[in-house]
Each structure stands twice: as C-alpha cells, then as structure tokens.
Amino acid sequence: MAQQSTSLGSVRWLQIQSASDLDLRSQLEELIPEQQECLKKLKTDYGKVQLGNITADMVIGGMRGIIGLLWETSLLDPDEGIRFRGLSIPECQKLLPAVNPGGQPLPEGLLWLLLTGKVPSKEQVDALSKELSSRSSIPDHVYKAIDALPLSAHPMTQFTTGVMALQVQSEFQKAYENGISKAKFWEPTYEDSLNLIAQVPVVASYIYRRTYKNGQVVAANKSLDYGANFSHMLGFDDPQMLELMRLYLTIHSDHEGGNVSAHTAHLVASALSDPYLSFGAALNGLAGPLHGLANQEVLLWIKSVVEECGENITTEHLKDYVWKTLKSGKVVPGFGHGVLRKTDPRYTCQREFALKHLPDDPLFKLVSKLYEVVPPILTELGKVKNPWPNVDAHSGVLLNHFGLKEARYYTVLFGVSRSMGICSQLIWDRALGLPLERPKSVTMEWLENHFKKVSA
Ligand SMILES: CC(C)(COP(=O)(O)OP(=O)(O)OC[C@H]1O[C@@H](n2cnc3c(N)ncnc32)[C@H](O)[C@@H]1OP(=O)(O)O)[C@@H](O)C(=O)NCCC(=O)NCCS
Fold first, then answer.
1. Burial class of 271 by CB neighbour count within 10 A (0 to 12, 13 to 18, 19+)
2. Which residues of the chain have pLDDT under 70?
3. How many angstroms does the Cα of residue 390 sit away from the middle of ligand 1?
4. Cβ proximity of 170 and 274 under 8 Å
5. Which atom, in ligand 1's list, is nearest to the CA of 386?
6. What contacts 227, CB < 8 A, 6 or more positions away?
7. Active-site residue (options: 266, 291, 394, 401)
8. CA distances (Å), origin 327, targets 89, 305, 379, 439
9. From ligand 1's centre to the CA of 338, what distance in Å?
10. What's this model's pTM, rounded to 2 decimal places?
11. Structural domains in the chain?
C-alpha cells in the first residue's frame, strides 16, 4: 500500500490502489499489528520512565493535569485546541473530503481519520457512507423501549434508553459468551462500533420527532451522506443546515480521553463491557450541565437574557446580567474549560460559519457581544482558569437559526457525534489489549498521615 509522509503531525496520506482500500476494516487489519508492536516497544524501552509528579491538589482537584490515559484518536493542546490524529480543525476542514469543494468535512471522513490516522479519499468516504447506511436498521423493540418513557422525559434519558435497547444486538457480548480469544476482541468491537455509529442518528431523530413533532417520523434517505441524512431525518433539509450538521458532527466527535464522556466510556469498556454499554455510560456523563448539557444551558440562558432585556441589550446591561448570574451562584454556561486556556477552535469555526451564513441573526449578534463581555468579567473573578468561550457557547444559536429550536434536545446531537470518537478509541483499546482501569484512591486521613511522614 503506497503511503507518503507529510509534515502534518502523524498523519499519513493514503493512495487508493485496490478495491480493498475502500474497506475500513481491512485497513485496520493491516494497522493493528504495527501499532501493537509500537506499544510493546514503548513499554520495553520506556516503561519505567516518569511522566510527572502528582500533588495533593491534583488528587483533590479532579485529577487535573495527571497523565493517566492512553487515547490515540486525538490530543488536546491547552492553547491550540484539539487535533484529530495530528490535524487541527482548520486542517480537517481543508483536507477531509466534502460534498462540494471548499465545503464542510464529511463526518465519515473524520471517522476514517480517527480510526486509521490517515486522510481518506472521497471514494473511501463514500464507501463508508454506504456501509454505515447499510448498518442503520433498528429493531422494533428499541422504539418500544423509548415509547415506554413519557414525552416529558429528557431527550438524553430517551437516548440512553435507546442505546441500552440496542445493546441486545451486541456482537461482542455474544462472542465473549462463546469464548472468543483475547487476540480477536477488536473484531466484534469493530462490528458493534460501526453498527452503533450507524444507528444512533436514527434513534436520535426518532426521539426528536416523537418529542417535538407529534411522532411524525421522517424516513431515511439512503442516498445522502451521514450528516445530511441525520439532518433530513430530524426534518431539516436546508442545504446550509446540512453543511452545519456535517461541521457539528465533525467537531464534537472527540476531545482526547480525559473528558467525562470519553473517560467514562474508556473506563467502562476496560471491564470488557461492550461498546453499547460503554457508550450508554458515556451518554449519562455527557448529560451533565458541566459537560455536554452546557449546550442546552447556553441557549436557555441566552433566551432568558432576551426575555428579560430584549435582543438589543446594551453592553452595560449585558455585563449586569452576567454579574447577576455569577452572584446567584451559577456558572456562565459556554465559558471555561478543564484543559483549554484560549478560545476553543470549535467555537471559532462555528463563529466563522455564522459570519458567513447568518451574520444578521440577532442571537448570533448577542453571542458575539458575550465574547466581548464575559471573558473580562470571569478574569475579574480571579479564580477562573480559562475565561474564554468553549464549543457550547456557539452551537445553540446556529441550530436555532435553522429551526432546531428545542434546546433540551441539543446534547443528543453532541452524543451522536461523540459516538465516532468514543467507538474509534474503544476499537483501539481492544486491539492494543489495554487492561482494566484501576487507579488508586486514598482518604483524607491517608493524605494527612502521608504529609506528616514526608515533612517529619
Ligand atoms: C468547564 C468547567 C466545568 C471547567 O471546570 P474547572 O476545570 O474546574 O474550571 P476552573 O479550574 O477554571 O474553575 C475554578 C473556579 O472557577 C469557576 N468557573 C469556571 N468556569 C466558570 C464559568 N463559566 N462561570 C462561572 N464560574 C466558573 C469554577 O466553578 C471554580 O469555582 P469554585 O472554585 O468556586 O468551585 C467550568 O469552566 C464551567 O463550569 N463552565 C461552564 C459550563 C460549561 O460551559 N461546560 C462545558 C465545557 S466544554
């Protein structure tokens, strides 16, 4: 297989040579032995080398800064933001295949990149689109499980329920029950993962139509790509909305391994729970307001600003509103981050999309005003490590502009996208034979005794 190196991180370009190059699974079959060797060598050569010191602050403070996970698909730099297999978001926008030249990347291309570390050709992406479409049928009991919930159930609760109902199909679980050897674990994990990634948009759109559109389901259009078909099933066919959905699904897919949803999936899967069980657990973490639910919170908060002060709120009034939020003991949603220390590039690319397609939208103008107003206030608070906007500060107003106005649904979209990052890594977890995750915990008494001993 012909490859050539580029200066872009670890990404290798791939040239199409044979029909099997279009098959993602056979690509992985070639890559896995190479990567297993690489990990073995790392362990042999550097296994005992230290990677840093752990302080009590880190233990008490949510493990910030502790390097404790292997996560191959992406890496987050505090200043520069996310890189998917070495590629930044602007590089992905430039290099990954799009429907129209210069358009937004196809999320299937990102999935290929996450899994293989290679930029796929348009033919490879089209083949993957078709494959995902062929894996997307949903057994009836899944709809029945969701229908058992009241319409008032939060869409994320409905989504997790749907994913758990899909779990009965798990190939990994069946294979494990039949005594599959460890060396082959990745194979049914791959099957489950691709099935799950293919199925979640169908489940998610069913939840949307059931909850907000009187249960009038829109059938899939199998000639469309993954993102466009998802938008179509939700009921939105505006070409700009299709582009937005492709961008949205691409940028929310992965954010290295330590965030709550990714880490949860990795932890649960380390017990050899199958991809459905692991992803379901991840969704429950994503549903928390400090993580994925922040996109819902942002739009609701912005709408409360408009309700109370109007769309043309002055800068001074907006400052007062931000202070009022902070003084009532709440966070300003959409700002701050556990790792990032600059404006999130996922925010920036959405802002660029808005500047191009909806520059006059009043809520977009308000988001722009918040970009000026909030960071200095959070800085003034003195304790916020990152006063800059994150991905969630922007996504809601874009969706709202194109008619997807139900904020409580937004985290489901995030979850659909996350399936790609999480499942790609789970395949590699099994391929590399990563072990059960089991960090050490200690009590406050243990810490006190330890520090007495070291300072004696
Ligand atoms: C994302 C987030 C949870 C990161 O938390 P973190 O790593 O603990 O952040 P910091 O170290 O900067 O937090 C230090 C303090 O600043 C506060 N802070 C951080 N971001 C804040 C925000 N946007 N508004 C108000 N206070 C904030 C924290 O609550 C913490 O206060 P405390 O010491 O009284 O508990 C936090 O920034 C936040 O709550 N943001 C709003 C929710 C959000 O947008 N989440 C989506 C993230 S992609």
1. exposed
2. 1-19
3. 11
4. yes
5. 12
6. 106, 107, 242, 245, 246, 248, 249
7. 291
8. 35, 15, 15, 37
9. 7
10. 0.95
11. 132-288+420-432 (1.10.580.10), 294-401 (1.10.230.10)
